[in-house]
Design a protein that fits this description.
single chain; alpha+beta; Phosphatase 2c, domain 1; 2 domains; five-stranded antiparallel sheet; 13 strands; globular
Length: about 325
């Protein structure tokens, strides 16, 4: 099991959770998690967001393979059409059917590191793909390493790209952003839809980041109360809010059986994974670490060196690619 997960959701109107347009899903054994944000102005976007996250966790698409991705998206569209009920629609709702539903999509997957990247540090390959403004935050030792895919809070003002449930001849324009980095046990990964993501970006840019560990440790009612308070003070806009917090815990074990994916969507009560229980062995390990601060410091330094080595290798590859392109042009 590569990670443990906790999921939090709060509808735009808490009194009508069935109108929530967000969805999430994760598979603990396969190490994949996804969130999606349905566009409220379209029709049946909640069902479309749910379809996308479930299909992603079941079989993550390959955005770099145009034919394979087109087949995956076509299957999602067929599933969506089978889910929706078009009987009893008002005239203005029927007018929206030809253009269908729209949703952002973000997913992250933990994979074994290739030999040339693993080195002595172990860990995982974190691969994430995003279209739109659902975002990922990568944390280590309580500190933020990176945000993905947006570069600043100002980008939330733009209309995000979104996948459509109807083929409008624009699929070739749907370019995914990709993140491919090293990830280590005890890292935390946050997957958030736009309202929560924008609030986090704003806090980071103001040099006033939230208490990152508390986002894993909080209870569901406490999280909902915090989101409500942020809305009331206009620190967070009124919108559906979804946050998945993943705690990286162990090596990927391909031989383990796959559990059914955990999902959360507008019309279903969102299941929430409980915080991890501490076993006797884990408690002993924690006690040993508390009595060995030098060992903990060395572990943190080694993780940091591994991260620097990874960043340096990527920078070197980028420089070589640029040099090759320059000589080709000559």
């Amino acid at each position: 099991m590569p990670f443990e997960a906790r999921a939090f959701q709060l509808a735009k109107d808490p009194e009508h959770p069935g109108e929530n347009q967000d969805a999430y899903a994760f598979d603990l054994q396969c190490g994949v998690a996804a969130v999606a944000d349905g566009v409220a102005s379209a029709i049946f976007s909640a069902a479309w967001a749910e379809t996308l996250v479930q299909a992603t966790v079941r079989q993550p698409p390959e955005p770099d393979d145009p034919n394979g991705f087109a087949e995956w998206l076509d299957r999602c569209r067929r599933e969506w059409r089978e889910k929706i009920d078009t009987t009893g629609l008002a005239w203005f709702q029927k007018a929206k059917l030809p253009t269908g539903a729209f949703s952002t999509l973000l997913w992250a997957q933990l994979l074994p590191l290739p030999a040339d990247r693993a080195g002595a540090f172990g860990g995982f390959r974190l691969v994430a793909h995003a279209i739109g403004d659902s975002c990922l935050f990568h944390l280590r030792h309580g500190e933020l390493l990176r945000c993905f895919p947006l570069s600043s809070v100002a980008e939330f003002e733009n209309n995000p790209l979104a996948l459509g449930s109807a083929d409008l001849g624009r699929d070739a324009l749907m370019q995914f952003e990709t993140l491919d980095v090293n990830c280590f046990p005890d890292d935390r990964l946050l997957l958030a839809t736009d309202a929560v993501a924008e609030w986090l970006y704003r806090r980071v840019e103001a040099n006033d980041p939230p208490d990152w560990p508390s986002l894993w440790e909080t209870s569901e009612p406490e999280w909902a109360n915090n989101m409500t308070a942020l809305r009331e003070t206009r620190e967070m806009r009124y919108d559906d809010a979804t946050l998945l917090v993943l705690h990286v815990v162990s090596e990927v074990r391909a031989e383990q059986p796959t559990e059914a994916p955990h999902t959360g969507a507008a019309h279903a009560e969102a299941p929430v994974a409980q915080p991890e229980e501490t076993t006797a062995a884990e408690a002993g390990g924690a006690a040993e670490q508390q009595h060995s601060p030098a060992k903990a410091a060395v572990d943190q330094i080694l993780d940091g060196v591994g991260q620097l080595a990874d960043e340096g290798a990527r920078a070197g590859r980028l420089m070589l690619d640029r040099l090759r392109n320059r000589f080709r042009r000559r």
